[in-house]
Structure formats: structure tokens, C-alpha cells
Amino acid sequence: MNWITNYVRPRINSMLGRREVPENLWIKCPETGEMVFHKDLEENKWVIPASGYHMKMPAKARLADLFDNGDYEALPQPKVAQDPLKFRDSKRYTDRLKDSRLKTEQDDTIVAGLGTVKGVKLVAVVHEFNFMGGSLGLAAGEAIVKAFERALKEKCPLVMFPASGGARMQEGILSLMQLPRTTVAVNMLKEAGLPYIVVLTNPTTGGVTASYAMLGDLHIAEPGAEICFAGKRVIEQTIREKLPEGFQTSEYLLEHGMVDMVISRHEIPSTLARVLTIMMKQPAISKETALARVPDAA
Q1: pLDDT tens digits, residue range 279-288?
Q2: pLDDT tens for residues 115-125?
Q3: What mean pLDDT do residues 32-38 have?
Q4: Which of 38, 75, 133, 191 could cross-link with 165 by S-S, CB 3.0 to 4.6 Å?
């Protein structure tokens, strides 16, 4: 950046009445290179229409898409210590948190809500990957535990949508402590006889995979999602061998029995409703209800 960029160009644009065009109006498909207008991508649930490639979906948008008519009760974010280790690398941890909150308009990586999906009441927990890579820290762990407690109180299932790089290094051992805490919360739900379903999204890695992301009664995955503990490059450098094509993708894990089904994002609400009615021994929903949203009250 220099004086031409900072001063001259804005002055010329203001005199000519020109407006700066946002850089994210067009999104490039990572697979085919196709350019897609951002509004078209949003309307298609962040799935590239031609290739079917599943882009990362914002957490709040996922909740609004999942619940009937986009109507749900947002669960509060618990208050925790912000920087317990006074951590600093190239930046202070508190500054990284401020940047992520400004970027995502969220307190931390976890967003949770209570509502109905095709008439089935459930609690949904979603990772926001744009908040420090969806990493698991004190705030995220506490939010997940509180979401499980709410599901127990409501006597309803919980659906988890992980998208994470793993534990949050800026919180050290305190981050790793969230793995057993969330595992205990999963067991509490199971002991109550309530279903726990995990919808694995891209990417689901590290300590999140090593804990609650792989403890579901049913594991659904979005197409092409990377699901692993250690990355492909780390494994190849460790064992000094080339890994198979598509290793650690949803389709590879389905073929080897690690996930139960791989389905398009468009089919997730109807699939969850259908599966949960079976698990909860509720009356079967009609095909029309499974394929369509609950109509607006109007």
C-alpha cells in the first residue's frame, strides 16, 4: 500500500463518481475454476451448481437453512476467561479474538440453536470455521456442553455440524481439556436415550475428530469433506509412503466404514427428520413433509 493507493485513487474515484466493487462478488470453484455469482451461490446453499462442490457455509446461515422457516432460538454464549494463558505469538491472542469477532460477528466459534426440522424438535450445534479455523477452546467447549444440557432439558436430539482445525493452540492444555468434557456431555445424552447425530463438514480434523465428532449414533458427511486427525502431508512424511487418491475424504471413509452416509447439503434437513423419527420411535413423516419445508404461518 502506498500514497497512490491510499490517497490518489480514492480522490479520482470520488471525482468521477466511481464506486469500489467488492472483491467477493464472484466465487471461483476450487475444482473446475468456474466463476459463480455470490448471490446464486448463497441461494444454492453454498454449493457450486455445475460441479456440486460444497463450499464452506457460514454457521448462522446453516442454522437458518436447517430449521423450519429459519425460525429457532439462539442459545446464549457462556462467559469464560478470554486469555487465560496471556498468550502471544506474532500477535496477542486477545487481538486475534477481536479480529475474528469483527469478521464473523460472533463471540466465538460455536453457534447453537433450538428449533424444529420438518416438525422434529432438536438442538443443532455448528462450528464457524471463519472464527480462528473453528478451533476448540474454553468458550467453544463450554458452549457445546451447555447445548447438550439444553437438549437433555428439552428431551430432544442434538445434531452436531463440526468444521474445525482442532484444538486452539493459544489456550494450550485448557483447550485439550474440552475433549473429555464434551465426551462426557455426549455420554450424558446417550444415557438419557436421546439420539446424537454428527454431520461432518469440510474440514473436520484434529482434536475435534478425536472426540465428539466421531461419537455420534449416526455419522453423515457432506460430499468431498476432509475428515481426519492428522493431515495427509504429515502422515506421508511420517510413514514415508504415498497415500491413496482421495484419502481422508467423505467418500473414502464411507467406503471403509468410517461414516454411515454421504449426502448433499440440500438433503440434510429431510434426512435428519426421517432418521430422527425412527430413532425417537415417532410416527413416520410423509414424503411431502420430508421433501418440503414446513409452510409459513401466513
Answers
A1: 998 876 665 5
A2: 999 999 999 99
A3: 90
A4: 133
In angstroms, the Cα distances linking 18 to 10, 11, 15 are: 9, 10, 8
The span from the CA of 48 to the CA of 30, in Å, is 10
- The answer to whether residues 152 and 122 touch, using CB atoms and an 8 Å cutoff, is no
Q: Rounded distance, CA 18 to CA 100, Å?
A: 31
* Alpha carbons 91 and 291: distance in angstroms, whole number: 48
Gap between the Cα atoms of 257 and 12, Å rounded: 61
**What pLDDT sits at residue 214?**
96
Give residues with Cβ within 8 angstroms of 227, minimum separation 6: 200, 203, 204, 205, 209, 221, 248, 249, 250, 253, 258, 259
Taking alpha carbons only, the member of 163, 151, 111 closest to residue 280 is: 151
| Residue 147: other Cβ atoms inside 10 A | 25
In 3-state terms, what secondary structure has residue 19?
coil
Rounded Cα–Cα distance for residues 160 and 151 (Å): 12
Q: What are phi and psi of 190, to 5 degrees?
A: -70, -40
Q: State the helix-helix crossing angle for 59-66 and 268-279, rounded to 10 degrees.
A: 60
Q: Does domain 56-291 have CATH number 3.90.226.10?
A: yes
**What are the residue boundaries of the structural domains of the chain, listed by start?**
21-55, 56-291
* Rounded Cα–Cα distance for residues 191 and 206 (Å): 26
